[in-house]
Amino acid sequence: MYFKTRKGRIEIDLSPLLLSTGILIWALYYYFSTVRTPDGGAESVLFIRPLTIFLAVCFPFVVRGCIRVIVHDKVIIETKPQADKNDKDRGFLDKRRLFFTLSLFVYTIGLTFLGYFIPSVLFVSSVCFYLGVRNLWLLIGLPIFLAAFVSVVFKGLIHVPVPIWPW
Questions:
Q1: Are 10 and 68 in contact (CB under 8 A)?
Q2: Of 48, 77, 106, at which residue does a domain stop?
C-alpha cells in the first residue's frame, strides 16, 4: 500500500504490520485476562508478562521496518537490507543452521536438568566461539554477564521466578 504526497510517496508493507499487530493484541488480551484473576494467574502463564513487554518494545521497530519513503524516484528511507549477489540461501542442511538447531536442543535439555545459569553460559559461549569470537574475555565474560543480567531482569523487574541452579 502506498500514499502519494506532494514530494513523493510513502510505501507501507502491510503483511508484517498486520501480523505483528495481531500478535500484540493477542498478547495484551491474554496478559490482562490473566492479571485480572484473583491469584494473578496460574504459574504456567508467568512468561506472558515478559512476552508482552518484549512485544510492546519491539512493535515500533516492526512498524518502522514496514515503511519506505520515496521522494521524486529517490529512496530516502530504505528499510529492507540489500542482498549481496554472492549471498545465496544454502538451504536447511547448512552447517550453521544445523549447529544452531542442535545447540538449542541441547540448551533446552540442559535447562531442564542443570537450571538456568550453567546451560546459558555454556550455550552463549559455544555459539560465540562457533561464530568466530576468539577473545577469551568475551568468551567467558559475555555469557556470565548475559546470564546474570537476564536472571536479574526476570527476578527483579518482571517478578518471574527462574531456577538459577539445579539444586
A1: yes
A2: 77
Nearest to 45 by CA among 33, 55, 34: 34
Domain that holds residue 69: 2-77
Specify the DSSP class assigned to residue 71: E
Same domain as 65, residue 21: yes
Same domain, 66 and 115: no
* DSSP codes of every residue in 6-45: SSEEEEE-HHHHHHHHHHHHHHHHHHHHHHTSTTSS-GGG
Q: Which of 27-31, 56-60, 79-83, 90-94 has the lowest mean pLDDT?
A: 79-83
Summarize pLDDT for 9-66 with one digit per residue, the tens: 888 888 889 999 999 999 888 888 887 776 656 665 677 778 888 899 999 999 988 8
